[in-house]
Amino acid sequence: MRILTNEIINAVCYHTAQRRGLQPTDVEVQLSWDEEYGYTAEMWVQGRSQYLIEANLLEAIEQYVYSQYNIRAFRSDIQLGLDEEAGEFFADIAS
After folding, report:
1. What whole-number distance in Å separates Cα of residue 11 and Cα of residue 64?
2. What does the alpha-carbon distance between residue 77 and residue 10 come to, in Å, rounded to a whole number?
3. What is the Cα–Cα distance from 3 to 35, expressed in whole angstroms?
4. How many helices (H) and strands (E) does the chain have?
5. CB atoms < 10 A from the CB of 68, how many?
6. What DSSP line would sit under 20-36, residue for residue?
């Protein structure tokens, strides 16, 4: 199974909202990748910025695919990637 940028962002929004008692629409997320830090995201909640590392993204994706698709995936089953030509992030989830 593969989820793309919008669903990864949704995963982070839902996960953050659930943990903080907010609405998913209260969370904004921008994904990024660089050679030094790998996959990261900047998240804005109630006017405050926070950076997420890859482990945080994997945790959010893990919870998202369980709640949305009823698929129990572990972090080791999730591989993040970037299609540079399409400008699209993706997460491949082994089943």
Report:
1. 5
2. 19
3. 22
4. 2, 6
5. 13
6. HT--GGGEEEEEEEETT
Query: What three-state secondary structure class fits 84?
Result: coil
**Distance of CA 89 to CAs 30, 52, 55, Å?**
11, 15, 16
One-letter amino acid at 74 equals F
pLDDT tens figures, 59-72: 999 999 999 999 99
pTM comes to 0.93
Each residue's pLDDT tens digit, 25-41? 999 999 999 999 999 99
What is the phi/psi pair of residue 94, to 5°?
A: -70, 145
Burial class (CB in 10 A: 0-12, 13-18, 19+), 71: middle
**Local structure of residue 37 (DSSP, 8 states):** T
